[in-house]
Specification:
The protein has 319 residues and is of the alpha/beta class. The protein has one domain: Rossmann fold, CATH 3.40.50.1820. The protein has ten helices and eight strands. It has an eight-stranded mixed sheet, sandwiched between helices. Helix 4 packs across helix 5. The longest helix is centred in the middle third of the chain and has 17 residues. The radius of gyration is 18 Å and the shape is globular.
Length: 319
Amino acid sequence: MTAASGQPDASHRFGARLIQTGLDNAPASPAPNATPTPPPADTSPQNDHAGNDSSQNSRVPCDKVTFTRGVKYGGDSMNVLDAATAQTNPTARRPVVVFVAGDSFKDDRTAAALKPLVEQAMCFAASNGLVAFNVSYRPAPAATWPAGAKDVAAAISWVYENADLFGGNGQEIIPIGYGAGAFHVASFLAHKELQYKDDYVAGAVLVSGIYHPTPDIGEGERAYFGNDASTYDKRSAIPGLTAIEVPIVLAWSSVDTPGFIAQGEKLKDQLCNAGHCPRVAVLKEHSTPASVFDLDGASPALHERLRQLIAQLDARGLP
C-alpha cells in the first residue's frame, strides 16, 4: 500500500491492463440493452454533519446506464439496494463500489435530497467501467447499534454472491461510507463478529464520518448509540480498524465541523501508529457522495485516492 500510494498516476504504471474507471468524464460504450434513466435532479442537500449546502457543478449523463432498483438483501423493508452498470463485455469482471450514505443516524429527513447525489456518483462510476451499488439501511431509533453494521454486512455478502450477475468482480468490492454510512462501514470492518463468512472487501473509502462516539455526540448519534456513554468505547470502530489490513481511503472536509475533522484526524493517526497509514484526502468544500469522483467540485484529491486504490487492486492480478 505504501508503494502504491507513492505513485502519482498509477494508471500509467499498469497500462492497458488497468480498467480505466473513475478517471475522466469519457463514459464507456453503452450496453445495447441499457435501460435509459434520466439524470439526477440538480438538488443540493443540507448536510447535518457539515451544517451547510454542497453545490453540484457537474452533470453526469445516465441515459447509457442500466439501473436495477429495490433489490432485497435482508429481511427488513429498509434492506434494499440499487445497482448501476454500463457493462459492455459479458465476460469482463469489473471493480465494484458499494455506497452506504446517510446524513444522520436517525430517520433521515434529508434522504430525498441526498439520493440524487448518490445516483450522480453511481452514474459516473458505471459510465467509467465500475459496477455501482447503493445500500439502504435501518435508521435509529427503531434500529440501534450495531444494526447499521449488520445491514452493511448483509449487503456486502449479497453483493459478493451476486456481483457477477452485473459484471462485477466479487474480489474487488470497495464499500464507500459517507456521513453516518461511514461509521456503519467502519464498524462492519472493525467488528469481525458482525461479518458474514461469504463476503469480501478489497478496500474501503470513509468520508466525513465519526468513528468513536463521545459523550458530547448529538441527538441523532445518541439515538443510535444509546445514552450510556460507558458503552461508547466498546462501540468504537477505531481499535478494530487498526487491526485489519484492508487498504483505506480516508477523507473529510476542511469546512466540516471541528468534531468531524477531529474524528478523521484521530482515525488517521491511529492507523498510522498501527503501521498502515490510509490514503488521505482533505476536501475544500462540503463533502457529499459525489465528492468521491469530484462531481461536486469539492476536491480532485479524493477521486485521485480512489483511482490509486483501484490501480492497487488491479495490480494484484499482474505477474
